[in-house]
Amino acid sequence: MGFFEKIRQGLNRTRENIGHSFDQLFAGELNDDFYDELEETLILSDMGAETALEVSDELRRRCREEKIKTAAEARDVLKEVLIEMLEVGDAGLALENTPAVVLFIGVNGVGKTTTIGKLAARLKAEGKRVLLCAGDTFRAAAADQLEIWAGRAGVEIVRQHEGADPAAVVFDAMSAAKARRADAVLVDTAGRLHNKQNLMNELGKISRVIDRELPGASRETLLVLDATTGQNGLIQARQFKESAGLTGVVLTKLDGTAKGGIVIAIAKELGVPVKFVGVGEGVDDLTPFDAKEFVEALL
Known about the structure:
- The chain has about 300 residues and is an alpha/beta fold.
- It has helices at about 5-10, 10-25, 30-45, 50-65, 70-85, 110-125, 140-155, 165-180, 195-215, 230-245, 260-270, 290-299, and strands spanning about 100-105, 130-135, 155-160, 185-190, 220-225, 250, 275-280, 285-290.
- An eight-stranded mixed sheet has the order 3-2-4-1-5-6-7-8, sandwiched between helices.
- Helix 10 links the parallel strand 5 and strand 6 (about 250).
- Helix 2 (about 10-25) packs antiparallel against helix 3 (about 30-45), helix 4 crosses helix 5 (about 70-85) and helix 10 runs parallel beside helix 11.
- The model has no long low-confidence stretch (mean pLDDT about 80).
């Protein structure tokens, strides 16, 4: 099944929530009421008031500029506006300079460990040598869960005992990656927010180890967010962005939310691309993000 079909299925609940409103909207007149209703519908999809207003204003400007007279024609212009909002950076993974390092951050319960396992399986299927690093040493059984995923994906893992210094585990993983000629190291990190200062200190320490041990390696810092938390997820995302310098977002449980517009809010407000979306429980249900197909499936 291709991305479009997967994402279309994943957005079923969102379409049930707002699809009827969209259909009515684009069958009506292109007037002030249309733009007001569009804004309300976008807010219902969890796009956020500020982003919804910006979309509505930009659509109004373009329709005026392009002399569009009907709501039906405005639908294609809306697609263009949304696609442009989503294309805020390279949605691909930077893995060129090996061993590439992908750091995963995010609070507990968002599906971080599962995401790492699914990405490991995807990269292994592409012929890459992958190493997992169990850098979350605070949560009981976090390393055990990651080890189960390493087994499923058929990749190796570096871990230490519970309570070990995360930076020490990362050091071991970087050394192992060089020795075993790994293509990519996927690093799990603690999912507790603590306070912002502790988070910054911990991630800073891990980052310095990576810089020292693998200078010049490709690096990604991916924030894993649960789509069902909606605007609350955005608050988390802002805190992590300040602390960690994100390169992208992975949005999990998109199939579990009726508010898929959160994808657009994240790209717009954070200015970082959504790189993967999770649309199911299977090992192959982590899918590289495609802005155009996402918008087609949403509308």
